[in-house]
Each structure stands twice: as structure tokens, then as C-alpha cells.
Write a structure and sequence with these properties.
This protein is an all-alpha fold. Helices cover 80% and strands 0% of the residues. The protein has one domain. Helix 3 crosses helix 5, helix 5 crosses helix 9 and helix 6 runs antiparallel to helix 7. The longest helix has 30 residues. The protein is globular. This is Chloramphenicol-sensitive protein RarD. It comes from Lentzea flaviverrucosa.
Length: 308
Amino acid sequence: MPPLTTSAITSQEVHTQGRGLTYGALAYVLWGLFPAYWPLLVPAQPIEVLAHRIVWSFVTLAIVVMILRRWRPFLELSGKGWLIVTAAAVLITVNWGTYIYAVNSHHVVEAALGYFITPLVSVALGMIFLKERVRLPQTVAIAVVIVAVIVLTVDYGRLPIISLILACSFGVYGLLKKKVPLDAITSLTAESVVIVPFAVVYLLVLGSANTFTTEGTGHTLLILSTGIVTAIPLVLFGAGAQRIPLITMGMLQYLAPVLQFAWGVFVVHEPMPTSRWIGFALVWLALAIFTFDALKNRRKQTLAPVSN
């Protein structure tokens, strides 16, 4: 019979991973439900919504950092670190703004496509900029996505610009985040510090056109909630990432675009002609290849003998 301590440790690990799975799933479900949230802020225009999101995210995250006493990393961040943070702040601003515009202009499905292809864009960026070795199945998956984009370009009569901006901005954003020695909450707070002055200036210039105080108490409260809505899934994501393997978080990330896609097709009834279904089917095929390869590679690493 194994020692009781071994059983206890195993039970604790199972409990910890179960909580991590719950936190991670909740984070991606909340992100997946964003298409239901942003239209609630109309008649505020996308740029105004973006500016408010930056301001109130900064306020919320600053409070969290103060409560957790994580201000020391800001003081220790080098000039090069702040330069990378600035570039990341620009990219996440572009990403947020594009997504808000997409949702409020009835392009939810196109936005979902962007987040479906983001993992493969990240692989391509790693290959190009980090000289990471790309396995054959990953190369095949990227090639299939390229074909899918061509099919969707023919379908839309144009490049799926929203999808490409979302995927590329978030992919490069993730690439930069690898270079910043800050955790998720502290890093986003630093990015907010960089970008919030521009958001404040924009809202001041907007003046009486700012809907913050002109559309009633409910609208004001919704605007204020943008900070909490941004922070909660981020905190849940961080809690989940600390408790479960990265490969598991990678599988969970598909929850968000699946929910976004479902919202666009079945709730707001965006058009999905046959050619568009074919394009998305190719994307899902690429993701299936990518996911199977990731799981297979993970299993190989787990079973590999450890040398002393």
C-alpha cells in the first residue's frame, strides 16, 4: 500500500488542477461572451468605448496592484522593458479597438475567425522571429489556414481585414510579452500606464459628445464596468495558468472564439453562405491538426526518459 502522504499529495494536485481548469474555463467563457457586452454601451462610439475601457481598466488594475503590493516590478523595469511595454500597449489598444468595432458593427463572426487563427499566427511568428523549430504538422496547419483565408477572401470579396488585424496584433502582442519580466496583471497595468494619458486626453477633447454623463445612470454604470469586465477574466486566466499545464490552457483558448462564432451565427444571425462555412471548416481542420500535434508532442515529452 502506498504511503498516505503520497495519496494526500495526489489528491491535492487533482484538487488544484480542478480549480485551475475551472478558473481557465471561466476566463475564456467570459471573453467568449464579450459580443453580448459591448453593444450595451451604444450609443457610445467604438473609439469612445475604447478610451473608457483603457481609463477604467487602469483604475481597476491599479487598485488590484496596490492591494497585492506588486508595485516593485514597475520600479525595477529597465528602459528597454518599458519600450517593449509601450509597443505592447499600442498593439493591445489596436486589438481592443478593432474587436469593439467588429462587435458593434455586426462583424462578430469575422472577429471570431481572428481568434481561431491566432494560435497559428503565433507559431508562424515564433518561426520567423524566434527561430523556433516548426514541426511538419504545424507547417501543414499554417498552409491550410492560408488556403482558408484565400477562400474567405473570395467569399467576402475582400481580405478578412478584421480577422487579420486581431490575429496579427494579438500574435505580436504575445511575442512581446515573452520579453517582459512581469506577470499578466502587472504587465497589463504597465501597458495601461503608458496608454491611459492618450485615452484621458481623447475623452477631454470629446467634451459634450462624451456619452458618459448624457445617457443616464445605467449607461454610466456600464461604462464604469469596462474596467472590471477587463480585469476579471484576466485574473481568472492568471489563476488558471498557475494551476494547470500550458497545453491545457491552450486547449481552453478555443472556448472564446467558439462562443463568439455561435453568438454571431445563432444570436445576431450574421450571414453564413456555403463558401464561408467552407472557409471556417478549413480553419477548424487546421486547428484540429495543430491540436493533435500539440497533444502528441506533449505525450512524447511526458514519456521521454529523464537523464541524470
